[in-house]
Structures are given as structure tokens and as C-alpha cells.
Amino acid sequence: MRRKPAWDVIVVGAGMAGLAAAEALGRTGLRLLLLEARERIGGRVYTYADATLPVPIELGAEFVHGRPEVTLRLMQQAGIPLLRVPEAHAVWLEGQLSVVHFLETLQPFLRQLPPAEASDEAVAAFWQRVLTDALPPSTRALARIIAEGFEAADPGQLSLQALAAMWRLRDGEAFDYPQFRPLGGYGRLARWLYRRVAASAACMLQTRVTEVHWEPGHVIVHALQLGKLRRFEARALVLTVPLPLLQGEGPAALHLEPALPSAWRTALQQLGMGAAVRVTLCFRELFWEQKPLFRELSFVHAPDEPFTTIWQPAPLRLPILMAWAGGPAAQRLAELSMEEIIAEALHTIGRLYGLRDPWRYLVTARGYNWQRDPFAGGAYSFVRPGGLGARAMLSRPVHHTLFLAGEATDEDEAATVAGALQSGYRAATQVQQALQGRALTTAA
């Protein structure tokens, strides 16, 4: 007779999905272990602070997109104010800056998105038909930005139906989709969740899970902890690692024995991992405020530049600019050193803001190349053509023993912090139901 495992549930990953799952499970009285490969919590939420910066900055997730109930509820409980971002956009094309209303400018493109019942294809194929000279240059530019920048995807690999589901007009009109920033950064929420988890669970950082051996009702987790091999057993496992690790890619890839059933493996291959490189630059002064056109802008989109969007920390007025490259632009930067990446960001800012020597204003810069992070392998997930059902498939329990969570497994808020949080709470509910059902079966 097998002895009872030391743990009821093991949660792998202390990103936002793992923290949410562990926070919920910790309130149930289950014996819970949280394992995290990094020496920090938060995963792709990475809020950084040092003495050279006037405020903490984000090297990963930054915005609350829309009004997701889970994020708003947790921010309120944690006492973290949200600052609404002014929707003041401009497009930079061929050396000219044009102020635009983002959704109104996009409408000629959005009206051509196919209905939900149409067949799927790659966004790039759709572009060839519709991004013609009949559309204004600013519309064509923003169409590229929402696929390559927002989705962080190669348009040749991105599902048109997935893009359309996000951007399709409601009743022929543009929709309200505000953005917010957590005051002090997303890291505040990660720390608040972690404190709640640590009060009821065992937590181990710098513990990288390498292999999982499982059968219904029982898992054995092998991990490397500061050079030492560790072994843990549990009745259930919540895996919240990013998509590439589940796909078996990169040095931190996870090995499951046996492999996931074929339906889950197929779903994993129907998703891709977007690319992102970002740099935050702190300057001696707000030099852009000397130019009336730039003073009130929040975002400048430049699809032909190495960094395709530059933004300010509005509504705060600080001498900081963020440079973002997503999708193909990020892939082109990915193999450069961080010094070279920062130089490219400064070159972009110099061209956009008309500065011959932007270096003379620079105090410090901090960047992050998510492609080189072995525990992320990229920015966030996107859907490949024909893969619309993949996220729903990944959200299903595997023999009521393995439970996948993370933004890639959430249908409603994928590629966002809200999606990660929702998926963690969904997985926690599934675990409770599975363990209660198993206990009832055993008792009977």
C-alpha cells in the first residue's frame, strides 16, 4: 500500500497564476507546496527599483487592460490604486508625426475583419488583401501595431480569427477599452499575494522543477534546488509555467512522464510565444515637454522603427520613457547585447523627438529581453491559425491530477495579468473539486 504523499498539492511557478492558485488553495487547509525556479516571485511581472530611478519601473507586465473583475477586486483588497492611462496616441511615419484617435483611426481596418463563422488564416495573408493604398497610412500602421506590437506576434503565424475576436467592432462601433497602471507597479500585488500564500503554505524559491512523473491521483516532482536534487510527492499538481516550457523548448523545459495526452499536446502546438524587448530610460529632464505636439501624448507608434512604440508614464509626469518592441521587431533585437538594445532605443527616441544627441539627457536605462529569460522564453502567448479551441483545451484537468494554469490557458483574458490570475483561481477550484471527489470515492 502506497504511503500518503507529504503534500496534497504542489504548485509550480510563483508568477501571477501560481500565486493566485496557491492563495486560493491555501485557504482550504490543504497541505500545499509552492515551487519557483527564480530567486524572485512574479514571473513575467517584474517591478524593478533602485536609487537612480524616481519610481519603480516595470520590466514585464505594466498595464491593466480593460476592467477585468479579478484584477480590480485584488487591487482593491490589496489597497493598490489604479491610475487611468490617457488615450493620447500618435503615429510616426516617414519622419512625420500625426496625432490620432486610436480606435477611430483603426475603424476602416476593423470593419474588414471577418465574421466569427469565417474560416481562419494567418493575419499576414489577410493583410495582403486589405492593407492597400485605399486605407490611410495611419490606419495601416496601427493595424500592424495591434498584431506585431500588442499581440507580440509574427503576423505570418498569428490567427486572424483570434485577432478579430479581440478587435471586432461591437454593433459597428468602437468599444471602450481603457487602460490603467497600478500605482507603484504590479510587483505590489505579487508581494501581497505571496504574503497570503506564505501564511498557509511552504514556499521554495530557486527550486527548478525538471521532471514530473505522474499517474492519476499521484505525482512525483523532481527539482534542482541550489545544486541539490530534491524530490516531492503530492496528490495533485498545478503547472503554471509559461508556454515554451510546456512545449519542451529551451534549457528550462519541463519533462513529463508520461507525456500529456495527445489532445493537450495538440493544443500546446496550436499556440505560439510572442516576443518582446523593452527598455525604460530615465532622463535628466522631460525634454519632450518643450515640444507642444509631444507634451500631452501617452503613446507614439512607429512601426518601421527598431522600437515600435514609445510611451510616457502618464498620467504621472516623470522624466521617463519606455521603449517597446514586439513580435518581429523584438526578434530582430533579441540577439543584441543589452548595451546595443539600449542604444537602439535611444536612436529611436532621437529620431522621433528630433534630438541629435539623446545620450546627453540620459541618467540611466534598464532593459529586459524576454527571449533570453530561460524561465519565460518570450513575452506572452498568441493563437496560431486554426487554434481557437486550444486555450479551452488546456484549461481542462488532466485525469483530475494535472492542472494547467497561466495566461496561455485563459480564454477571456489571455496574454494579460488578468488571464494569469483568472487561470490560477480556475485551477484552484478544479483541484478542490478533484480532491473532494477522490476523498468521497475513497470513503465510499
Automatic annotation (TrEMBL):
Annotated metabolic or biological route of this protein: Plant hormone metabolism; auxin biosynthesis
Residues at which FAD binds: 36-37, 209
GO BP term, pick one: auxin biosynthetic process
Essential cofactor(s): FAD
Record Gene3D superfamilies: FAD/NAD(P)-binding domain
EC nos: 1.13.12.3
Domain Amine oxidase: 16-431
GO MF: tryptophan 2-monooxygenase activity
Highest taxon, organism lineage: Bacteria
Broad enzyme group: oxidoreductase
Catalytic reaction annotation: L-tryptophan + O2 = indole-3-acetamide + CO2 + H2O
Pfam families: Amino_oxidase
Keyword terms, alphabetized: Auxin biosynthesis, Oxidoreductase
Keyword Oxidoreductase: yes
Similarity field: Belongs to the tryptophan 2-monooxygenase family.
Name under which the protein is recorded: Tryptophan 2-monooxygenase
High-level lineage: Bacteria, Pseudomonadati, Rhodothermota, Rhodothermia, Rhodothermales
